[in-house]
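The instructor's notes for this session suggest beginning with a concrete chain rather than abstract definitions. Hand out the sequence below and ask the class to guess, before any prediction is shown, which regions might be ordered.
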Amino acid sequence: MIALILCHFALAACSAPLVRWLGRYAFVVLALPPAATTVWAATEWGGTEAGRAVTWSWEWIGTYDVSIALRLDALAELMVLLAAGVGMLVLLYCAYYFTDDSPQLASFAGNLLAFAGAMLALVLADDLISLYVFWELTTVFSYLLIGHTSRRKQNRRSALQALTVTTLGGLAMLVGFLILGEAAGTYRISAIVSEPPEPTLAVSVAVVLVLCGALSKSAIWPFSLWLPNAMAAPTPVSAYLHAAAMVKAGVYLVARLAPAFADVPVWRPIVLVLGGATMLLGGWRALRLNDLKLVLAYGTVSQLGFLTVLAGAGNRNAALAAVAMILGHALFKAALFLVTGIVDHAAGTRDLRRLSGLARTTPYVCVVAVLAAASMAAVPPLLGFAAKEAAFDALLHGDTADRWVLAVTVVGSVLTVAYTLRFVWGAFARKPGVPDTPTHRVGAGLLAPPAVLAVAGLVLGPGVGWTDRLFAAYADVFPAPAHPYHLALWHGFGTVLLLSAVTWAGGAVLFARRVTITRFSRRVAWPTADSVFGHLLLGLERVALQVTGFVQRGSLSGYLAITLLVMLSGQLAVLITDRPWEGAVAPRVWDVPLQGAVALLTCAAALSCLTVSRRMKAVVLAGLTGYGAALLFVVQGAPDLALTQFCVETVSMIVFVLVLRRLPVRFEESIGTWRRAMRIPVALAAAATVGVAVWAAGASRVAEPAGAAMVEEVAHHGLKDVVATILVDLRAWDTMGESAVLAAAAIGVTSLIYLHRRGEAPMQREELRGETAWSLSGRRLAGLPQGDDTAPERSWLAAGSTLAPEHRSVVFEVVARLLFHPILVLSLYLLFCAENMPGGGFVAGLVAGLALITRYLAGGRFELAEAAPLQPGLFTGLGLFVSTGVALGGLAEGTVLHAWTYHGHLPLFGDYHVSTSVLFDFGVYLLVLGVVLDIVRALGAKVDRQIERAAGALRAATDTGKGEPKR
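After discussion, reveal the predicted structure:
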């Protein structure tokens, strides 16, 4: 199973070269993974219909009971056949639907196959977290597919709308999954279904949240607005995602969880009411539309409501009808969407008011469409008829609520027959007063996929009994009724057949009165959900603008005050309510008096920040508070933390100074006396509240501290530095996440500075035709020697010649030259000694960055370019690559980030060992170095270049060079 899923993604990644080599026929190659999956699922038919399940699992994070588990049972067997079988046919259809010069064909092909892989993994997932991951993958790929033609505003809007609705539902579903998993004690779906948790209030809330995700995915009202708009996507996307795959995911989830939670009080009212309402609203809307694709779209919304009702009804016979209808709907709706694409290709329009006479010019297409449409209208002997008969029978013999739902479904089925006739008539009939629509020849390759689907619906009508054992294997999970229903084409004359006849007659009457119905429908029509959604977004935007205008007034101190006051309110409310200090151990003022002295000086520096008006003073005082915290770490005996804090504060202060070159000397915000007086109590209150909260958290400990166990574990492996080992081994997942966040934040900030282009042109001395920024920024003082009178006799820097002689410092240049390489060596020492002494990849990267900063401060941007000729992104990307590679390398031992150590012997050096934790830390080292270099280039060298360009010190050719916006 996992191999088939990975094949989908692997081949999707190769779509670009395949399309480049084979053109549109690359879709034939891309259809191989779905074809192989279809064959595999077919071979497992016998086992799944006998009640056996094929399982596979891989323990991902064993400590938290998180695993990737796959399971093929009867329900999954059906969904795999649909996702893979229909996906294969749609990919083959694409080979003839598109042309070799279709725009962005490679990305479309890759996204479509990747979606098929995500959908396959979704229906096979037996773990709630895994299911959610693949659920959101289908959301992302559907967004890319709907917005494929991104040049059109409608496609972009529709893709964003689908992403917004389904993602919000998915997030709600994730919360529900977490609640269910904790309530059940496991996240394994099969275990939850077999032994569901007690229906407590928490479980009821979780069920509602999960249903929000399922209903939004399947476009059930009030979430149905995104599906019709998604018809802006190419027709193959509609045929696959919106008929056989993505929209079925919500119905599948309802069917999967119904055996466990159908008895929860909130389940049936939500599913039955919203499903029935969707069936009626979608069918009614389809009667007045003129675009064939939109007729099918609203018909799909209606049918999804019907499927949701059957899947969530909570009894055995309804579940049997649900899976039969899922199969029938996928076959006839995918075929009709593909036929619509053929009509659009052949006639150049989908407007049924302009189409006429296609039954004569495209007879084979008409036959395929009639077969599929007859199955949708539940006409015997097609599969749709057998499934509809099963649904009517299940609801007829249910409880009172089921009979009410039966009345709704009969009315909905009348609407289904009516819009089915409207589709066939609009696409193929000859209309009075409308000339025959000219068409071109339809190739066999384009017609074959919908023909296969339509014929399958025809064959499975009389042969529906072949599927009875498989579908019953799923339905029998529900309590057995007195008279279990069995799928068959003919069950004799009775009430159910009479209801079917009523739907055919009622639909025919509605179609015959289509003009009147259309006028009446448009007269009483409510505002469309799409317009409501648009007005909601517009209103939200206006409210956001009003709130932003009220709150965001350009005052940094105001923002901080609001943040601190909100934090104060929340913390004080919790502290006053819980009173955690009662019974807690009283805090010690200090362990040694030196701590008190350092803390007093740190507090004094912090309070002094409240009264300064110069930016540089504020930066220095803020830096002193950081250095004070580092001294506290030293006194407390935490050298790793102290070393890191010192390096971070040093780099931060240098970055602040570089930024201050472009800012006024004083704070421009005018602050009144009373506002200045309010700062001090707010700051003191915030500090006191945080201090009390930290003390209360430490004093409330009930478990044994983990420090002793970590020290023992580290010593067991022959190591001494507990902190470094925690970062790169015991808590390496945290380090990986923090590294990724650090890289993303740095790239985002520096990208805002670069504004137009992220790339930076090489810093060549030839581009300079005047003085550097360092010379320009300096004031010439009268009475002092100028030029070569003060210049060093020799150049100690690689780019010293770019500096104005009067602005060169021989002491600084010599110090920078002498210290650069020792600092780099020190950084490597800190990296490799971290197992037994203070150090680590993070602090080592900062130290290496300080070496480069020293070169920059001594010689400017050209000196930095000489010291670090490579792009910062190379270091950042390589660091992430190394860390991730080491993490994935642990899979060889069974789990991600599994550590191992290699011991060896060298003739001159003796015994040595290499640990994966050191390699992981090396990735962190490269990443931090890249981040520091990127920031220095952006805030230092980039700003220098801007100053020089503004002063006219750059040649004209470089003013619009690579990486610089044209002015």
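Then share the key points. Residues 79 and 792 are 79 Å apart (CA to CA). Residues 916-950 form the longest helix (35 residues).
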